[in-house]
Amino acid sequence: MVKRQTVWLSTMMVLSLMLIGYYTMNNGVQTTSNSGTAGSPGSTVTTVTPPAGSSTTSGTSTLGGSTATQTGSSATTTGSGNSGSSPSQSASPSASDWFVTLQTQVDQELSRQEDVYSQIISSTNATANQMTQAEEQLKQLETLIGQIGNAKDAVMGEGYKAVVIIPDLKTNQATVYVKTSTLSASDAVKVMNIVSQNLNVPINNVIVNKHS
Question: Looking at domain 33-211, which of 3.90.1150.10, 1.10.287.4300, 1.10.3720.10, 3.20.20.70 is its CATH number?
Answer without folding.
Answer: 1.10.287.4300
